[in-house]
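Fold these two proteins, one after the other.
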Amino acid sequence: MVAILLLTSLALAFGLALGFAAQRFRIEGDPVVDQVDALLPQTQCGQCSFAGCRPYAEAIVDNRADINQCPPGGEPTIRALADLLSREAKPLNPENGEEKPTTVAVIDEGTCIGCTLCIQACPVDAIVGGPKQMHTVIASECTGCDLCLEPCPVDCIDMVVVKTGLAAWSWPKPAPADISKKCAD
């Protein structure tokens, strides 16, 4: 009985000490980094030359990266970042890729050999399946980063443009006018 009471009191003492240490030595995150990270598309694609959206947000705030390196976010994200950080909006850096419509991966399940290379490449765990079994994509989790395409040895993955539903629909942007033609007339 004494051993049980001793172990219980030790567990309680260590639990209280750990709880106090967790509160006392807690590391607060930078709120500006959190705001920048919230504006990024969270595709974790690496096209910005960073391992994910959070490291890219930290680099933007530390002035180690420019705000125009995110192709999935495109122009709207660049404008939102410029507004938040009081910087000048710039066009998307072509070295990082080009803006394209939102896509989602689709696996041809009849061709899939179950190699699991696409599962290992997916940064958001949107692909499910087992070794030597058919794989499939959870469309609501897929960010369209294209990282699963290259490792697939049988090319059974296609990127399909996501159809815009009524809730996400917006007016298309007008084409820029060619002023040089009007001035020549």
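Now the second one:
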Amino acid sequence: MSLKRLLLVLPAAAIAFSLAACSAPAARPSVDDVSAGIQKAAKSTSSSEVFTDKVSDCVAKELVDSKISDSALNTIAEGKEPKGADDQKLITKVLDDAAKTCLPAK
């Protein structure tokens, strides 16, 4: 499993998403919620076989434990792509690190 494929899953699932500007701030989502969003996004791409429950849970834990904003994590939990440039940079870094930890070696 390549890191490139992992990094492409979340953006590929959310091309048509636009975040509502007036939404109330939401609490930080749980690992289970983020994992479900990852799997939802993966199902809309050809990466669903990569994101087993174990891999999705591992990646979600890394994302939730990071400094990624609650808003961005809630967007991921919905199976969508966060739009902010700062969030994107941090998400890419966290996913890069998570790929080393969470993906089974081939």
